Amino acid sequence: MKTLILKINKNKPEKEKIDKAAKVLKNGGTVAFPTETVYGLGANALDKTSIEKIFKAKGRPQDNPLIVHIADTNKLYDLVDDIPKKAKVLMDKFWPGPLTIIFNRNENVPDEVTAGLQTVAIRYPDNLIAKALIKSANLPIAAPSANTSGKPSPTDSKHVLEDLDGKVDIIIDGGLTGVGVESTVLDISGDIPTILRPGGITKEDLLTVFDEVKYDPALKNKDFKPKSPGQKYRHYSPKGEVKIVKGDIGKVIKRINSLTKEYESKNIKVGIMATLETLDKYECENVVSVGSRKDFKTIAANLFKTLRYFDEIGVDIILAEAIDELGIGSAVMNRLTKASGGNIIIT
Hints:
347 residues; DHBP synthase; Rossmann fold
């Protein structure tokens, strides 16, 4: 398969280009496109054969459910049995945006999308290209992140090309994404709204709507059937082994420098994921700041591209500073923990 790269203006998407990509989706093909979070790999959510192409291109396990993207809230009725009051409140406040809501699905949604679950994850993205593409196709679009399964999610079309060139029909180049980590996935079926995956809409944001919000205990438990993408498998992992160092920042710096010296004495190439405040504290050639320790949004935006940069320069070990789990910092630490396979060093 030859993959077409289609450059589209992110501020004024060209209709003829959007329609060309939409036609591919209508005909059962695959299109990688930008959202405000990361790039997604899209296919017709109502067509089993199209959905199978996503799993094949990514090498994604079949028991990992997909998120369905819409660009018109009225299209929900094609996918779900009912829209609960809590969902309507969330949609009014956060859609379009980086929030995925879990609904009870109807018979139109194939098992291949939901991994056999009776629920379906749906969101309305806030990206001009994504919205125009979905509207032009006039279809709900299933779209996980547009990367090889398990690798860091793509925030730039070049990341998509690295992973999926020759495996998908079209890659839309729409520039860098903004949020940098995937959407928050929220289950509202119980008494207390439950975050299944932290993301671009924070717990603090949700608490402006609800009196109480909790994290799913399954986020820290591997022995369960996933209700949301990103829960079950090791994700976001670069080629180098990731180790998170957590604790008082002075002790973290000291421990990272000690580990760096130990590894480099064995000819192991080290990369350090630092913050602006600690950038000059490390004795290593490959140190990258992801942003200020107080600026969680910038850290989130830089997280995956930094992991991919370390791949580019061929590091063997990535030593990453932990950050506070406040706001979108919770999503950052969730992704880092997944990337490390839970390898956390406490100082």
